[in-house]
Structures are given as structure tokens and as C-alpha cells.
Amino acid sequence: MTDILAASPRGAIHFIFTQIMRNAFSLIAIVALFPVSYGAQSRAAPKPRPAVVYLSYEDARPVLDSLKEVLPSELGDASPEKLPLVWRDWVARRDHDIRSRLNKGDEDSLVNFLLFGTSFTLRPRLTLADIARAGQKENSEEATKAFALIQARAEDLIQGIVAPRDNERLLFARRLYEAKGYDLNNPAALQQAKIDLIKNLARVLEEQAGYGRLLDSARLMGDTSQELALRSKLYKDRGLSSDTSLKPNYAIERALASIKANAWLARASVRRVAIVGPGLDFTDKQDGFDFYPQQTIQPFAIVDSLTRLGLAKPDDLRIVTFDLSPRINDHLAQARARAAKGASYVVQVPRDLEWNSELAAYWSRFGDRIGVPVMPVTVPAALGMLKVRAVSIRPAVVSGIDSEDVNIVLQHLNLAPPESFDLIIATNILVYYDTLEQSLALANIERMLRPGGFLLSNNALLELPSSRMRSVGYETVVYSDKPNDGDHIVWYQRSADK
Ligand SMILES: C[S@@+](CC[C@H](N)C(=O)[O-])C[C@H]1O[C@@H](n2cnc3c(N)ncnc32)[C@H](O)[C@@H]1O
Questions:
Q1: Dist. CA 351–CA 360, nearest whole Å
Q2: How far apart are the C-alpha atoms of 192 and 194, rounded to whole Å?
Q3: Which string of b and e fits 412-431 if b means at least 16 CB within 10 Å?
Q4: Looking at ligand 1, which atom is closest to the CA of residue 240?
Q5: How distant, in Å, are the alpha carbons of 62, 140, 249, 405, 462 from that of 59?
Q6: Which of 291, 437, 457, 471 has the highest local Cβ count within 10 Å?
Q7: 0.85 cut: is pTM over it?
Q8: For residues 214 and 235, what is the distance between their CA atoms, to the nearest angstrom?
């Protein structure tokens, strides 16, 4: 998607902006921008759990000492005596700032919903590539049609937000707009909400084009490791999105198979696994869908793969997820609460016809170790011949997944050595952070891994001399013939204590 936009970014953005300006809507100032707040995480009977703690100054110090040139001025300029105190204040502020990036990520999700959603409209879906193509031909019939379609879909979405019924994505969008101060009973406010939606689309297009340009310039340098380093923090200024899909889990299964083949992990040796940023499939940015309930995939996919590979026994495996999104933590808590009453968790997995045969084979076997195939939900006519599988995951598997509110950049679980993790998975999450934040995240991860344990990530991370984490292998996995459709999974091993 980024690559297609990179071909004609300016045209696309200019197109959207000019169309917005040409429209008769008055750009009334938005009354107030309040942060979105969600219900507190509900939990069933609390059990003793390890505390979530901030990375102390002592533990962060080797990272800060090694990265002096990139420290924010307040940390970089502080005298050594003042640094411990300055660190404590910086951590509190940074935690707040990072968590506020969730709001922008939610707005990005609404843009995907606007373009791809089929649950609030019967109008055709639009991809960012369609818009980019139309933008190349300003004033053409194609451009006019595309903008009319965006307008009409935005109108339908706003109507859906006014009367969401039990559509959970519309209810989410409604909460988002209410939190922004919109009075959804007021026609002028609704008009303004529609403009807000289209302006957000323009912003997302502009961001995508920027990523495309950055990657192009990295490619032109002809240095693949530089390109990978740049890719690895591409979204450092972007909103925190919850996007997720099946694909990275296939890449993780391949990486685990390679780790097993090289005898880095023995049979049934994986007992404790953490997943950083499990994600929630709302309507993901790769032409996502909204015809099935929101779902998380990665925690289940990891149990499935570890069992299939014989690396874990399902009845001797604990999974803990770390996420700072209340929406995701709450979703998992509710799934556990339902599992406690005997309900299974159904995952719907659509199949992209462009996938290669290996990924298609993974799609076919997904879930066979943790559940049974069930009838998928009906695919809307607008999506043509889309193939979908559904797997009903056993309640015992769902109950074995705990979730913790952790900001991995700044926090970790304070674990006694026997509780430390054998494996930590972090895909499509560290890419949202810069070098300092990634290095702090790695320090937090290191504290939770047992000596010899592994972090698997699709990011190239800086390996500071002070860190016990070292990359020891990687697997490159291709998903289709499309350019850049694949992942490079690196495994970092924690060495024994010095
Ligand atoms: C783009 S999704 C990736 C989901 C999944 N890992 C995948 O690869 O499909 C990013 C996830 O990381 C979470 N996340 C982002 N920053 C985080 C942080 N600092 N600490 C913990 N979770 C974070 C988001 O809330 C979201 O669940």
C-alpha cells in the first residue's frame, strides 16, 4: 500500500485537500478535544500477580549513557546528580504521552473503517491505492467519482454513528466523536464530524506518502541494513494502532520452526510466553474487514504454533499479553470471563487470494491444535468470493491467557526468576518507537526473559554493549508476489547474567 501511494502521493493528497476545500461545508472550529476514555478494565476474581513496575534509573542508566547523542534535552542536559529525579519525571510524562498516541491510532482505524467498511453502507469499498490513482488524474471523471464515493461513504458512516444499533465498530466511533465534544443530535455538528473524518483521511494519506518517500530514499541508498533500520522505526510519530492480521503469525511459526530445527529450543521447553501488543482486528489498514466481531488473533496463534511444533504442551503453557490499550486489555478480560463460563472464542480468518501457497497452507491449518473449525459468518455480497475460515477456540486455551496493562517502553513485570519468560513475541509494535524508546523496551524485555530465552520481533533493534540481548538468527518470510509483502523475523537471545 505504501509503495502504490509513493508513486503518486502528492497528487492524492492535493486531490483530497482541494476537494475538501471546494466543498460548501463551513469549517466550524471543533468545540473541544477531550482525550478518549474507556471503561476501566474489568477483571474476574483477582489473583496475586507480579507487580508492573517502571524501569528504574539504575536499570535505564546503561541505555542513557550509550545514547547520549539522541537523548531528549531534559535528560541530556541534566547534571549527573539530578538525573535520577529528572528520569522519574520524564518517565511519568513519557508514559502519558505514549498512551495519548492511542487516540490518533483510533482515528486511523476510523479512516480504514470509512474506506473498507461494509457494515454501515452498501456502497463499494475504496482502497488508498484507488484514491492515489484518482488523485493522479485531477478533474478527471475517475477523480470526481472517487471523491463523490468518499463523501457518500462518510455520510453513511456519520448516519451509522448517529444510530449505531449493536454494531460494535459504530459504537466505538460514536464514543470517539462524543469524547471529541461533538453533539451528535446537532445537524451542524454532524456536518463538522463528516469534515473531520475526511480531513483525517487526508492526514493518513499524507502520512502514508511520507513513509513511501522515506522508504524510497532508503532503497536508493542501496544499503539493505540501513533500509531495515529505517523500516524498523518507520511509525515512530504515528498514532498507536491496534491493527492485526494472520500474516505475522505465519512468520512467527516459521521462525519457531527454524529455532527448533537448530536446537535452540528443546521439545516441550516453552512454558511461559509473553506477547507484547497482541492487537485487535478492528478494520486493518491492509484492506481490512468489518463483517465479523472484533477479535484478537496472535495469542491464540502462538499457542497453536508452539503446540504444533511440539515446543510446548498446551496444559503446561501460560501466556501473558502486555498492552497499554484499555480496549485490547478489556477485550481479553471479557473473553476470559466468558471462557470461565464455558464459552469458546471464535476467530474468523479471511484468506487473501494473492497469498502464496505456504501462507495459504498455514491459513488452512490455523487453529487445529487449539480448537475446531466452525461455520464462518456470512461474507457480505460486496466482498465477492472472499474465503473465510472460522475456528472455535477451546475455553481452556482462552483461560490460559492473562493480560497486563504494560507500556513496554517504560515498564515491565517484576518477576522472580522462576516466573521469567522462555519466549517473548513483539511483532509490529516496536516499529512505533525511536531508537531510545526501542532500547528502553529491550531493557524491559531483558528483565523478564530467562537466561537463554528469546525475543522474536520483526524489527532490527540496536544491540547496545550493555545489553544482554543479542540477535542470533533470523527468518525471512514472503507472503505473496506483491513487492515488500513479507516479514523479517529476528530472534534475540538473552545471555546469562554477567
Ligand atoms: C499494530 S498492533 C500489532 C498487533 C500484533 N502484534 C500483530 O503483529 O499483528 C500494535 C499493538 O501494540 C500495542 N502497543 C503499542 N505500543 C505499546 C507499548 N508501548 N506497550 C505495549 N503495547 C503497545 C498496541 O496497542 C497494539 O496492540
A1: 7
A2: 5
A3: bbebeeeebbbbbbbbbbbb
A4: 15
A5: 7, 59, 32, 21, 17
A6: 457
A7: yes
A8: 11
Q: Taking the domains of the chain in order of start, what are their residue ranges?
A: 2-41+103-231, 247-494
State whether the beta carbon of 321 lies less than 6 angstroms from ligand 1: no
* Distance (Å) from CA 184 to ligand 1 centroid: 31
CA 275 to ligand 1: nearest atom? 6
Most ligand 1 atoms within 8 A of CB, residue of 245, 429, 479 to mutate:
429
Distance 323 CA to ligand 1 centre (A): 6
249 lines ligand 1 (CB under 6 A): no
Q: If you measure from the C-alpha of residue 473 to the centroid of ligand 1, how many angstroms do you get, rounded to a whole number?
A: 23
Judge if the beta carbon of residue 276 lies within 6 A of ligand 1: yes
Percent of the chain with pLDDT over 70: 90
Class of domain 247-494: alpha beta
Cα torsion at 127, 382, 107, 320 (round to 10°)?
A: -110
Smallest CA-to-CA distance from 279 within 247, 303, 243 is with 243
pLDDT tens-digit map of 356-395: 999 999 999 999 999 999 999 999 988 888 999 999 999 9
- Measure the N-to-C terminal CA separation of the chain; round to a whole number of Å: 45
